Amino acid sequence: MGSTLRKRQAVRQAPPGRRCPAGGAPKLQEGQGEAAAETSQPVVSAREKQTGDHERTLKAHKEEENPWKTMEVNGFMPVPDSYDYDLIVIGGGSGGLAAAKEAAKYEKKVMVLDFVMPTPQGSSWGLGGTCVNVGCIPKKLMHQAALLGQALQDSRKFGWQFTEEVKHNWMTMTESVQNYIGSLNWGYRVALRDKKVTYENAYGEFVGPHTIKATNKKGVEKLYTAETFIIATGERDHATWVYLETGNIALAVMTFSLCLTVQGEPWWLELPMLPWSVQDFLQALD
After folding, report:
1. Per the structure, how many domains does the chain have?
2. Where does the record place Basic and acidic residues bias (predicted)?
3. Cβ neighbours of residue 91 under 8 Å, at least 6 residues apart?
4. Phi/psi class of residue 100: alpha, beta or left (left: φ > 0; alpha: ψ in -120 to 50)?
């Protein structure tokens, strides 16, 4: 009775007013026929392909030691019998690098994928993550530059005299900061090489069970498999201007990735010294 009812429902035409896409009628009839042939409910379809019913999926799940085999039964990418790597780490920041090197200590075959999408200004950076490239390290170095300038100002009160005016060069500072960060990037790559960890500057994307697609900056794609994955991608800063006014003070917030890639003297150094009013600040932006 139930089987007969399903067959009747399968051949039932679409309600009036609904149009079937051009060439879609044969596919619809084929799918209806496959659904009618199933013996249990629910009947599942994915990507225009009949994947099976509840009984078939449940049987595969119980009989196979690896639950991913269920996906194989249901028409997706097959599960690999062997893997290219024991571990693939997606993300080359502090956490990802530490995990990769720790796994390598136990003679595991490890790969690290690290890729930075360029910012709207086109800036990108190397291995090491946000902290090393556009976070803690450049922040502390720029802070140190400010402390040195203040120390020079204060030193006059302690008897120090200067024969010429002391000036700050923004480009010299940013070049020194970038050179130091570059040395850290290279050091991380050398450390991975010494640990026999494979490194690729490529964007990782899962495409199947235990399978990842790595795309480099030239658009070249490669597939890799691993028994275990660690996702250590972290977060990205958001380039947003924020205006806060308390009394007569306005504050502008920007990202380090923008600060470190400005060509020439940055325009905000020409703004009047604090305190600013929001009106004065907006006029300066114009």
Report:
1. 3
2. 46-59
3. 112, 113, 114, 129, 230, 231, 232, 233, 234
4. alpha
The angle formed by the CA atoms of residues 255, 218 and 183, to the nearest 5 degrees, is: 50
Q: Which residue has the higher pLDDT, 201 or 82?
A: 201
CB 97 within 8 Å of CB 233: no
Lowest-confidence range among 9-13, 26-30, 40-44, 170-174? 9-13
Q: What pLDDT is stored for residue 134 in this prediction?
A: 82
For tokens 């049987």, the residue is: 59
Please state whether 126 falls in left (phi above 0), alpha (psi between -120 and 50) or beta: beta
Element (H, E) at 61: helix 54-63
52 with 44: CB under 8 angstroms? yes
pTM: 0.60
Q: What tokens were used for 247?
A: 């009394």
Specify the amino acid at residue 198: T
- Does the residue 134 lie in any domain? yes
| 237 in any annotated domain | no
Range of the domain at 266: 244-285
Do 221 and 111 belong to one domain?
yes
Within-domain flag for 155: yes
Considering only CA atoms, which of 197, 175, 177 is closest in space to residue 188? 197
Q: What's the half-sphere exposure (Cβ side, CA atoms, 13 Å) at 114?
A: 25
Lowest mean pLDDT among 10-19, 28-37, 150-159, 260-269: 10-19
Same domain? For 214 and 137 the reply is: yes
First to last CA, the chain: 77
